[in-house]
């Protein structure tokens, strides 16, 4: 699971490693509990919420947000933020639609790769500006958010790409299932596992945590901060590009406004999932669970038939409740650890 | 294209602008009072006057490069060619409130006979339009009106009653005249949507629809993801649901996309207001039987004929006057100089391939 060399097998280090592991478990555990409660309450009200079709819908609904949240997590961990993901998603979704409607013979794989490539190019722009100009990422990506969206607008010229313009095989990507599990969800899980493995097991992945914990110290420790941050933005852009392709496949209707405002949902998913907004801690698994929780909230409110005028307020309340629950469990876990270490010490 | 969405957004912007100018309005007010021209009929209408040839007709849409207006103006162009006028289209690339003013002034200086426009703001272009009218131009608004005193006639695509009647008829037919239906709307605060929903409820009080019941109104906020979730929610919450009506282009397309890939395909009927291009796929795969929208090309066509009739002296814009609009037939001007295009066009498997917008 971890290639991090066990420097010492002495008992204190071992117990610390185990307790850190438990803490990590506890963080995700809080969200799982919140998710379980939400599903339980909704199912008690309406048993159809747990029907196979409904579960498939939940996974499908979360897939795109999960891919975005995983990319965002990599950037947030290094104490940066990428607000341009919504615009990149929109631009890539339109580009994919344009590519497939003008050349319907294009294999789906090529469309996916082209989308990831375009997203990565956007990520390069962000990365260069943030890493080279050393301007806070918040400001840079706020700027590129509008810039990318502007390119999208001037390219689209008010046109819309419809499901009938896209090849069936591509649209099939959005609805196909493998053993009952939607392909989109499989893609999201694979992305999460791969990126999670990279962050946990590769040196450069660990260094992102170090940068996020204390950039100055990381620089003094000889970590190539600029290069690592640059890479994290390219990765985030590429994943936003992938999300854009998935969006086009799932919804089939694409215009220049696609994905407007989704960046805030992505950041919310990461934060709800226990990724510290100031960097240095958190996991992609947590962020993915956060994304699943947010979309499940949306779906269950629709099933519970909450008054639409109140829905947004309820969503906000539930986000705060989820974070509160997570925090409570984290504090309890920390207390437990403290108790144990005093016993051992 | 999502014209409804755009109209809604525009409405919000307008409301905001109005609210702001109501609070602080110092510079705007003067402009509004200087033009009390009104749309009183000037001179006598001669119903038998022939259409003048060689009229300069200019179309000024809310925004050029918007697919909806490209189609509408295309309809206008074919009408202008029929009555042997000179057609041109000018317009801003952005649908800002006052972005059309400079175009109107230019058209006025060029002695254009007819200006056909869709207003980005009911007030902002009033002054410019009235100066153009004083310079001799006839002004027709279509799709979106200005204040009535700033134009000669307004060609309205459809009335709320027309939409409600059409939507209820479509869904009743598709669910076999009885059962539970739900409405998937845009945002909870969308004025036109709420008005239509109210009118649909009125329609359903008719005895022939007594077995149809609206069990819920859901709001997809004109977002794909939210519309997906709300459609799913409706299907989960109401297992006996027979049909969904979504009178908004984003909602109906999202609901169709969801239904087409779900176990409900073919079991739950869906209709609404959508564009043929958006819905083609779902009509062909059997998810949607029929849906409706006004034909933008006909709208432009009628607006061009109305302009020509005004410029030729056939009509003056007064209530009760009649005009002949080529292939569309005869129209009568209603209250406030409004001409209604008619009930929305219905698109189904048989005719959908004849439309491209």
From TrEMBL, chain A:
The protein's name: Autoinducer 2 import system permease protein LsrC
Pfam families named among the record's database cross-references: BPD_transp_2
Residue spans crossing the bilayer: 29-46, 58-77, 83-101, 108-133, 176-199, 229-249, 261-279, 286-304, 310-330
Top-rank taxon: Bacteria
Membrane-related topology note: Multi-pass membrane protein
InterPro entries, alphabetized: ABC_transp_permease
Repeat in keyword set: no
Broad class of the protein's primary localization: membrane
Source species of the chain: Saccharothrix carnea
Keywords: Cell inner membrane, Cell membrane, Membrane, Transmembrane, Transmembrane helix, Transport
Subunit structure and binding partners: The complex is composed of two ATP-binding proteins (LsrA), two transmembrane proteins (LsrC and LsrD) and a solute-binding protein (LsrB).
Role according to the record: Part of the ABC transporter complex LsrABCD involved in autoinducer 2 (AI-2) import. Probably responsible for the translocation of the substrate across the membrane.
GO molecular function, one term: transmembrane transporter activity
GO cellular component: plasma membrane
PANTHER family the record matches: ABC TRANSPORTER PERMEASE PROTEIN YPHD-RELATED-RELATED, AUTOINDUCER 2 IMPORT SYSTEM PERMEASE PROTEIN LSRC
From TrEMBL, chain B:
Stretch forming the signal peptide: 1-22
Highest taxon, organism lineage: Bacteria
Protein name stated in the entry: Monosaccharide ABC transporter substrate-binding protein (CUT2 family)
Membrane-traversing stretches: none
Native organism: Saccharothrix carnea
Annotated Periplasmic binding protein domain residues: 57-314
GO biological process: rhamnose transmembrane transport
Lineage of producing organism: Bacteria, Bacillati, Actinomycetota, Actinomycetes, Pseudonocardiales
Polar residues biased stretches: 32-43
SUPFAM superfamilies in the record: Periplasmic binding protein-like I
Subcellular location per the Swiss-Prot or TrEMBL entry: Cell envelope
